[in-house]
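A brief tutorial aside. Many learners find it easier to grasp structure tokens once they have seen a single protein encoded end to end. The record that follows does exactly this for Probable glucan endo-1,3-beta-glucosidase eglC. Read the sequence first, then the structure, and try to relate runs of similar tokens to stretches of the chain.
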Amino acid sequence: MQLAALAAFAISAEAVSQGFNYGNMFADDSSKFQADFEEEFKVAKTLVGTSGFTSARLYTMIQAYSTNDVIQAIPAAIAQDTTLLLGLWASGGGMDNELAALKTAISTYGEEFGKLVVGISVGSEDLYRNSVEGVEADAGVGVNPDDLVSYIKEVRSIIAGTSLADAPIGHVDTWDSWTNSSNSAVVEAVDWLGFDGYPFFQSTMANSISDAKELFLESVEKTKSVAGDKEVWITETGWPVSGDSEGEAIASIENAKIYWDEVGCPLFGNTNTWWYLLQDASPTTPNPSFGIVGSTLSTTPLFDLSCNSTSSASSSAAVSSATASGSSSGHSGSKPSGFPAGATGAGAAGAKPTFTAGRGGYNGTAYGNGTFSVRPSGSASGVGATSSGAVSGSGSGSSSGSSSGSSSSSGTSASSGQGSSSSSAAAAASSSGVYTGAANGLASSLSGAVVAVFVALAAL
Ligand SMILES: *[C@@H]1O[C@H](CO)[C@@H](O)[C@H](O)[C@H]1NC(C)=O
Ligand SMILES: *[C@@H]1O[C@H](CO)[C@@H](O)[C@H](O)[C@H]1NC(C)=O
Ligand SMILES: *[C@@H]1O[C@H](CO)[C@@H](O)[C@H](O)[C@H]1NC(C)=O
Ligand SMILES: *[C@@H]1O[C@H](CO)[C@@H](O)[C@H](O)[C@H]1NC(C)=O
């Protein structure tokens, strides 16, 4: 048992996904094209002070403003050797187009696509939007659990026998949607649970940065408690670098770094994690803004990503100093007066995704034509790209790359959250390596091994 556990640990450590969320539009709702995605993926892989951000979570399979054209993040991921947590936008009646785009992607890109897909998410925060909190927050159209279960079955049947056959299928939602027992059929239907949680928005509780790590860990534990033996993947979390406060939570670069150090650093390399997010501030800056590179897509982040201070005393010192002004230090959920539940949109449980960047737009559609910007939660973030750079949107041009062509420099693309990719490390079969960079070729065999070890453990 001990050996088996060690083996499982060693294997899974190799296969862990680490990346960002990426929408299919820029902040002005203009489309992201292949070169834009390539530039984001490349920047993610080459961020100063860190490494390993080689995976991209998408919210939709559909290129922005098309009916069901395949999102250009897929050829971009192939070009940049970036793994994918794919997403299908399930709300708003567009599933048939999502499924059509999924089929087209499989037939067009086949094995080189399949080997990059670490997972597929059927939906994003659809249950949240249908919840009491989501309705109060006017978050948009959602999906009920039974329909999600049907969609999951459809996706299973579509990928059977294809290059994506081994991709584990999940669903992404706010953690308090997972813990709502009315949604248990979805837990039963998935292979893994995608956790979205933002202590920043848990404004009915004491949610200053000094409470954030504890709130995050509590919400993950609550999610795991309903997950049974299924994995919980961290599909969205982050802390804004700018914007209005939410309860005791203050948006600032300093606090975003503390959250990265205390919450992100222990996750990276250990738990599948897609941070929210690389960039959301091009060409305009949303409120709040979560992007770690600011308005210029550059490999130089707004704060030190090196994780050097993780778990050190200095970070907690930083925490207290950062939060000293403001709130009463209460840790135990004292509700800040003046922020009645619902007033700020964050519900009791707090995982509330109302912020603009990347959240579902009107009527829950994730694509559409400019008029209704539908931007699924968490839009754009990119993970590792290699060095050839592609377009930089607004003029940012990150240094390194050579820009290959693409997108115009005017910076118009939009990324709205759809699209995701999943790669199954596990699933993927072929050889070329899911994880960019290192470990090429290991992924597929590793994942098979992981499955085998879990089976062995279960038998014990
Ligand atoms: C729990 O989930 C059900 C089904 O998705 C939803 O209708 C209900 O509003 C949720 N409860 C709360 C308190 O949000
Ligand atoms: C973090 O640690 C690495 C390795 O010790 C070091 O090279 C780097 O300069 C450190 N970064 C910061 C910002 O201290
Ligand atoms: C959303 O759907 C409602 C009902 O179908 C429709 O009247 C409304 O125009 C839609 N809004 C948008 C922004 O598409
Ligand atoms: C968006 O819709 C408008 C009005 O229907 C149309 O004129 C325009 O061409 C559409 N744009 C795209 C990119 O489809």
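Self-check: The two ends are 7 Å apart (CA to CA). If you spotted this yourself, you are ready for the next section.
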